[in-house]
Write a structure and sequence with these properties.
Elements lengths: L1 H24 L2 E11 L5 E6 L4 E6 L3 E11 H6 E7 L3 E9 L12 E9 L3 E6 L4 E4 L5 E5 L4 E6 L3 E5 L4 E5 L4 E8 L4 E3 L4 E5 L3 E7 L4 E7 L4 E3 L1
Parallel strand pairs: 2-6, 2-8, 3-7, 3-9, 8-10, 9-11, 10-12, 11-13, 12-18, 13-19, 14-18, 15-19
Antiparallel strand pairs: 1-4, 4-7, 5-6, 14-17, 16-17
Length: 230
């Protein structure tokens, strides 16, 4: 019995020695990135992110200002970069651009919080996974997609297409904005602060007109999330 106990203690000590270096190397670090990118009038901003809140604000500036806070282990920060690409049509931001030849099997993403200032008239194409998305004062068309995050849009005067699986969607229209509303959900609901004329209503689909009318399209799709229009 004493011999078995001695072996067990040695085995436990060996296991602890194996886990100690791993715990040390798993220490998270924070990295800040500040960039600017040129964009033409009415150009498109595309954003790809996995996790971390994304905030986009329309301003009077003529370029795109990107402020990012990235959190991960040092190894992942060194091998997964924030890539900003300028093209003739606009700017693309990819928050998890892996270095060639780097293969980590587990948790190979960097949590990235993005705060982006853009010209008022840009169009948006935002595709994220578990990020919340907030857009304010952007007058161009917006396509916003997240899997488990919430979507909030304020001051919109152009068309908005928002899609989330389990998050909620909130849209605050800008002055004079209006148009056709289409809402599709499995178990979510649509609420408005008044002024919407309902055309069709069913268990999973609601459509109608809101605001002062116009040619804008407001399309919302969720699985279990709710949508609200102010």
């Amino acid at each position: 019995m004493m011999k078995m106990a001695h072996i067990s203690v040695l085995a436990l000590a060996g296991a602890l020695s194996l886990f100690t270096p791993a715990a040390a190397t798993a220490q998270q670090e924070t990295e800040r990135v500040d960039r600017t990118a040129s964009i033409r009038a009415g150009g498109q901003l595309r954003v790809k992110n996995f996790s971390g809140k994304v905030t986009i604000t329309g301003t009077r500036r003529g370029d795109v200002a990107i402020h990012a806070i990235r959190r991960a282990t040092r190894e992942r920060l060194d091998n997964i970069k924030l890539e900003v690409t300028e093209t003739g049509s606009g700017v693309t931001i990819e928050a998890n651009r892996k270095s060639d030849g780097w293969r980590e099997r587990d948790n190979n993403v960097v949590d990235t919080e993005l705060d982006i200032q853009v010209p008022l008239d840009v169009t948006l194409d935002i595709d994220v996974f578990s990020s919340d998305v907030r857009v304010a004062d952007v007058t161009g068309q917006q396509r916003l997609h997240t899997f488990s995050g919430n979507i909030e849009v304020a001051g919109a005067t152009g068309s908005v297409r928002a899609e989330t699986f389990s998050g909620d969607i909130e849209l605050t229209l800008g002055q004079g904005a209006g148009g056709r509303v289409d809402f599709e959900s499995f178990s979510g609901s649509l609420r408005t602060d008044g002024g919407m004329v309902t055309k069709t209503s069913g268990r999973r689909n609601v459509s109608g007109e809101i605001g002062t009318g116009g040619s804008n399209d407001y399309r919302f799709k969720t699985f279990s999330g709710d949508a609200r229009i102010r």
